[in-house]
Amino acid sequence: MRVFFAIEFDDVIKNYLSEVQHEVRSHCISGNFSFKENFHLTLRFLGEQNTQQVENLKQVLKDVAGVSEFELRLDKLGSFRKGNRSIIWVGLEKSLQLQQLYNNMEKTLSQNGYQKEERSYNPHITLAREVKMEKFEFLAEKTEIEQLTVKVKSISLMESKRINDKLAYVPLERVELQHDL
């Protein structure tokens, strides 16, 4: 199973990201656009795992979920270049709580035999991959991202798989964060 840890979004955020994606698509020559129902924030991609490893990862999820609920805020449109193609994403404002959750996850994964991530964590929500477009800079200037609040109430272990030949992200385990009164 191809799995990853993620923060899932409610329909309000997914609908908004879909609107932004529609604007992005109107400026693209081509691209592979994420399905609205698949919008999420990846905490850590783990790749292929067997059944026993997935059970261990469910425990890792429970171990790192002992933090309080927190909020994130959408920030800006961005891109990663790969040759003459790009990944287009929506970024998030810096968040100490998110960084602490990520660091705790990395530490716990390392204690469970997983290699630490080489790259620094750059939280983003992928709208499209393999995008060909004329001028991203024009699109980035033109597209203002509403600084909507994302309430993080749980974290999930997700499986990436094809269902009826369509890519789907299916929660294998979802753990609620602590609700402070």
From TrEMBL:
It catalyses: a 3'-end 2',3'-cyclophospho-ribonucleotide-RNA + H2O = a 3'-end 2'-phospho-ribonucleotide-RNA + H(+). It comes from Ruminiclostridium papyrosolvens C7. The active site is at 40 (proton donor), 124 (proton acceptor). Transmembrane segments: none annotated. A motif (HXTX 2) lies at residues 124-127. Hydrolyzes RNA 2',3'-cyclic phosphodiester to an RNA 2'-phosphomonoester. Keywords: Hydrolase, Ligase. The keyword Hydrolase applies. Pfam families: 2_5_RNA_ligase2. Belongs to the 2H phosphoesterase superfamily. ThpR family. It comes from the Bacteria. GO terms for molecular function: 2',3'-cyclic-nucleotide 3'-phosphodiesterase activity; ligase activity; RNA 2',3'-cyclic 3'-phosphodiesterase activity. Its EC number is 3.1.4.58. This is RNA 2',3'-cyclic phosphodiesterase. Coiled coil: none annotated. A motif (HXTX 1) lies at residues 40-43.
